[in-house]
Design a protein that fits this description.
Shape: globular
Distance between the termini: 46 Å
Oligomer: single chain
Number of strands: 7
Strand order of the largest sheet: 2-1-3-5-4
Structural class: alpha/beta
Strand content: 5-15%
Helix content: 25-40%
Number of helices: 10
Radius of gyration: 19 Å
Length: 258
């Protein structure tokens, strides 16, 4: 059977930090393959973080990142590590040292980053799903550009131990898949959904955020908003950014850089 590098015509997978990890023989994700963004540690192996300087100055990891270990424990097989922007510090997916993964949906255009290899591998059918991370859009942006599903859950909902840090107060594990059913299967594993669901309080709808996004986005999401309201009751329209989103964006930019 061809190796992942023989199959990888997209430049999605690393060669300098390559490692395969076989999952359990029985589990909710048994039989599925995935790529792990090269900022998650694997015990006994060095993490590249998209940077040859980082790779050369860090020892092999002592333990495997919790998020990645959950996938292995659920039976999924990691076929390799996927490229990232250098130190995850970009949204375009370009890496001056290792190249830019191909965007299978738009060859010749960037795949988006920093989870570029993960998104490219899923979009191109090299794996069933992939693990990425999102600080300021690093799952959402490449998912959009590569025409697949991508999820950034609430910050802190999935453990981030064993992952190289860009901006820890924003860094969040996330994942990609080509269909919603598989997104749900992977999410149940990563989110460890065996705990009781919290009770629902008020449903708040950020009216200023929808206004900032524009009429086209508001219209596109209208059915989704109505669906949530049918389940939780009518939402209360509120203003969340009283200082304005430009101020929030500048605050985020400074905190991330710090």
């Amino acid at each position: 059977m061809p190796t992942i590098h023989e199959r990888d015509t997209l430049g999605a997978f690393t060669r300098h930090t390559h490692v395969e990890c076989r999952g359990r023989d029985d589990g909710p994700l048994t039989g599925l393959t995935f790529a792990g963004k090269d900022l998650y540690d694997i015990a006994g192996h060095r993490t590249g973080f998209g940077s040859p300087d980082w790779l050369g100055s860090h020892a092999p990891a002592q333990r495997t990142a919790t998020a990645l270990q959950r996938l292995l424990d659920a039976g999924a097989h990691m076929v390799g590590k996927a490229h990232t922007d250098e130190m995850a510090w970009s949204l375009f997916g370009e890496n001056a040292h290792y190249g830019t993964p191909v965007n299978p949906k738009a060859p010749g255009r960037v795949p988006g980053g920093s989870s570029s290899g993960s998104a490219s591998a899923v979009s191109g059918g090299l794996v069933d799903f992939a693990l990425g991370s999102d600080t300021g859009g690093s799952v959402r942006f490449p998912a959009s550009l590569c025409g697949i599903y991508g999820m950034r859950p609430s910050h802190g909902r999935i453990p981030l131990d064993g992952a190289c840090a860009l901006a820890p107060t924003f860094d969040t594990p996330g994942w990609f898949a080509r269909d919603a059913a598989l997104m749900s299967r992977v999410g149940r594993v990563l989110l460890a959904d065996d705990r009781p669901a919290p009770s629902v309080g008020r449903l708040l709808i950020a009216a200023d955020a929808f206004a900032h996004a524009g009429d086209a986005v508001t219209a596109a999401l209208a059915d989704a908003v109505a669906s949530v309201e049918s389940l939780l009751g009518a939402g209360e329209r509120v203003t969340v950014a009283t200082e304005g989103f430009d101020v929030w964006a500048e605050t985020f930019r400074n905190l991330q850089a710090s």
